[in-house]
Write a structure and sequence with these properties.
Elements (H helix, E strand, L loop, with lengths): L3 H30 L3 H22 L3 H19 L5 H13 L20 H18 L11 H26 L18
Helix pairs in contact: 2-5, 3-5, 3-6
Length: 191
């Protein structure tokens, strides 16, 4: 009788059990942090500031910070975008111009803003990317010698162009992705 195969199955199942417990604990932490939006973002900002201090003290890893910046810019653009994307909305508009249609809505009709990337996922992706960049900032392999002012200028140009495109899209389709300037109605409970 060969018991080694049975032992391997036992080890594999205990490893899978450990991974499942770890995954459940991680999900429980995420679930409990969901209602604390301000505290979550303060934690993210502190983590990014610590990462900047690591880059400043190491005097290197500029490719890592550039990659993190581009990723966070992409995530922020997705956060600002409506679920029906720029290209989709423009294609639908072009299709509607070609064919006669009946009016189906009023211009003053309430249209809820549904984000392409929800706030919690944006925060979660920010934390994960910053932690990964933080780990990469301690690995000498990622300390690629580059002339950092070129990366900085390139990042500024990309940020300007993508934000200009996003703002033009907001103006064209008349939406505001933030809710701090919008009216809030209180519900009155009848007794």
């Amino acid at each position: 009788m060969d018991f080694t195969q049975n032992d391997n199955l036992q080890k594999e199942s205990s490893f899978n059990l450990f991974l499942r417990k770890l995954s459940n604990s991680y999900q429980r932490i995420l679930d409990t942090s969901t209602p604390y939006k301000l505290q979550r973002w303060i934690f993210a900002i502190v983590l990014i500031i610590l990462f900047f201090f690591r880059i400043i003290t190491a005097q290197g890893y500029y490719v890592v910070i550039y990659t993190l910046g581009i990723y966070l810019l992409t995530q922020f653009t997705l956060f600002l975008s409506p679920q029906l994307g720029t290209l989709d909305m423009d294609i639908m508009e072009d299709d509607m111009e070609d064919e006669p249609t009946l009016p189906v809505n009023n211009d003053d009709e309430f249209k809820p803003f549904i984000r392409r990337l929800p706030e919690f996922k944006f925060w979660h992706n920010t934390i994960r990317a910053t932690l990964l960049a933080f780990v990469c900032a301690f690995i000498p392999f990622f300390d690629i010698p580059v002339f950092w002012p070129i990366l900085l200028m390139y990042f500024i140009v990309i940020t300007y162009l993508s934000m200009k495109k996003q703002i033009d899209h907001m103006i064209k389709h008349k939406y505001i992705p933030f809710d701090f300037g919008k009216k809030k109605y209180n519900q009155k409970v009848d007794k």
